[in-house]
Amino acid sequence: MPERVDLDLLLRNLVDYAIFMLDPGGRVLSWNPGAERIKGYSAERIAGRHFSVFYPPEDAAAGRPGQALAAAAAEGRFEDEGWRVREDGTRF
Length: 92
Hints:
Layout: H1 7-13, E1 20-22, E2 28-31, H2 33-39, H3 43-46, H4 57-61, H5 64-75
Antiparallel strand pairs: 1-2
């Protein structure tokens, strides 16, 4: 019988993927080391902030973060490709 995988341990060791959880209003609740590596924010600096900080100003002004939240609420998930912004302001 296989051993039970510890989800917290798994998430803490995934550094190639940004995995984080938002509250229904779009504020960051959890943050893994991969998210810190990719987006530049430490968990302490991003916790409680709105995820719209990851969007370029023109996308935020166009309402893309709100559209993403609405799609996630309707579908139970959301996936998108586009420019995002790191803490230092660089785009990826």
